[in-house]
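Q: I'm writing up a methods section and want to include an example of the input and output format. Could you take the sequence below and give the corresponding predicted structure tokens, formatted cleanly so I can copy it straight into the document?
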Amino acid sequence: MLRAGKIFINVGGRAIVPEMPGLDQVEYLTNSSILALDCLPAHLVIVGGSYVGLEFAQIYRRFGSEVTVVEMLPRLLPIEDDDISTEFEKAFRKRGIKSLTNAKLEKVDVGANGLKATVTTSKGTEILEADLFLCAVGRRPVSENVGLEKFAAIKMERGFVLVDPSTLLTGESWVSAIGDVVAIPGRPHPQLAHLAFVEGEFVADKLAGKKPHPVNYDLVPGATYSEPEVASIGLTERGAKERGYKVKVGTFPFSANGKARILNLAEGMVKVVAEEKYDEVLGVHIVGPRATELISDACSLLRLETTSEEMLHVMRPHPTLSEALTEAALGVRGKPLHI
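A: Here is the clean output for your methods example:
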């Protein structure tokens, strides 16, 4: 029995296994169990078109498997900017990965050589035959048997713990929550390791009597470790418009970047979303080489509430991939220099 004046919950999460007819009759994989495979599937069907499913899709395609991704929403990487998703889908098709969007996986059956998945799309019903099936539709919190339901003041929602985003406190003043178990009223809470780490630092500093800045949930970077890589920080163009901003946008393709051409990795683009009145940069979105490293430049700038003018005046070395950020910022204010 451990006693403490303050407790914070960080129980993490596990893969969601969707309720689907026939799924309990076939062998299926999650993002954990797929790492233990000792054979290469001839055809892998992946349900879920977000970063986990797409990372595994590209891994197994490079190994030589035929891969089909089934996504219920209209596009892959649905939380990313529309233009980034479009560019990424082009790269997917070039690599021979099949994707079905606006698609619903109706049922799974045992097939002659593995399994059969019945998928409904706007074009009708399609039967996919595959060796293996990967569930990559998201994660749920591991909050069972923690005892939280004993406290009426702690509000739960589908296993998540609701917190005040400015304090990360639950309804009990001595209980905080961080990481994959957290839900924030009225907005998504990304299930990302780096966010959980920052939340943990915030709670620890607060308990130590310091006065840390609350986590800025508009500035949580996202990263997809695929080929090409995808990374983003801040608001998408669509998200900025939904919040009422009048936006201006600049883009720059890596095909016009010298270092990308040297590396023979010239797919993709950088997109900068800024608001028109004060020129503040609201979001930076990248699909292309080293995107998950390049985004750190943008993270620092958005933390300092940069404008596109300030962003374009940052002196970046030549030739580097980072020059694409300068060019995209130039695009917000007119036209990139090297197009």
